[in-house]
Request: fold
Amino acid sequence: MRKYLQKLLLSGLFLIVGSLAAGCIENEPIEPVPPTPTTVAAIPPRYPEIAPTPTPGTRDFPLPAPTLLPVAARPSSQNCIDCHTDVERIKLTAELVVEKVESQSEGEG
Amino acid sequence: MEVWEKVNVSDPEFFETLHARYGCIACHGGTPGTDNKNIAHEKLVRDPSQGQACDTCHAQTVEIQSDSLHADLEGYFTVLQARSDQAHWDQLMVGFELHCTECHATCGQCHVSRPTFLEGGLAAGHQFKGTPSMNLSCTACHGSRVEDEYKGQNEGIRGDVHWTKQGMTCFQCHTGDELHGTMGDRNHRYDGPQEPSCTSPDCHEDIGGENDEIAQHTDTHLTKLSCQTCHAQPYKHCYSCHVQKDEHGTPYFKTDESQVFVKIGYNPRKSDERPWEYVALRHVPVDRDTFAYYGDNLLPNYDALPTWTYATPHSIAKKTPQNQSCDACHGNPDVFLTADDVAPDELEANKDIIVTKIP
Reply:
């Protein structure tokens, strides 16, 4: 047991002496190196000359239908509607079928 | 349909729609502010479709659609140019104008009224239908072959499985993009990629894949045969169309009796998009003398195109007479187009697609 203790103390002593000796050695100075050049794009990015169109603000949906003419300038279709929705009237005014000629077609077309 | 019914704006809800806001005259012209029918109808535009009304708002669709096959009838011109020549063209067009241009469809003839082929008339009280009516628009024109096949109206033949089992309308396969020509300007309906394609996403995209349990879907079958070759039930063939005018000057046509059966032949439209060796063939009604009433030999290059043409019948079924068994197709001359099936006068036109050795 005593023998092991002596070895242990001796090892510790060598370790302390070694550490002190290492601390006294002067470190090699670090040589500064030139900075790495920053990569430059061959073609510099082009910035838009025109500012992007701003996103429209809140809009009222549904949007109004596109118009061919301003409503006030649009001709009234009321006469057309009055007639073409009145079954009796269009029956009276519709052209009579003029002797429809029977087709002489035969077979499947 | 009675004359008055054709112009009866019967649906009051139409007046609540966006289209109605413009007023009748904005699209149809005419004279406002009068009760006199004749004056009111002066300068009336009956079918104001493209170039006059629709493109005000639907500019892009109208511009593209004007090059679509429904609008420019380019499919007709392509095959007629091949069969005719410059010297006979003008005279050929006299007959064409009288007999074939009813197939031209304007915007309104699909989305508002019935097509001219059905003598017009508002389809739904002037409502604008974003998706046209299958019965009043599509099959009104495509009736003899497509509708009869699709709905099972050929005697003894079931309807197409897409209709009988799924109730699919035309537009579930034939999209607005296809019909408006958005997918490309075509010279013929079978130009370019398949539109529609059976193997499109959400359709039969797994055909030939790991989960395909159909033993006959081998690489050989899938690369050599179009889908319809195996899956078309008997479909219609038409013959000998002749056009002329009656004593009143009314144009009419006559065709020979149609026949219903399957014929498989060599692919007349082989391309990267349609690479198959064998396809379903349909006899089209053209004849060497179809336009003879309007002049002699108006189709001088009649033999330039086959009269048995590439077909995509709308009579699809899982089980068909030709795929019932191996022997139902292999070695069976009844389902292949052989020289015996072709009229002597048409042998030259069809020489490249007649099957000489039955597989």
Residues 39-45, 51-59 of chain A have pLDDT under 50 and may be disordered. The CA atoms of residues 5 and 104 of chain A lie 130 Å apart.
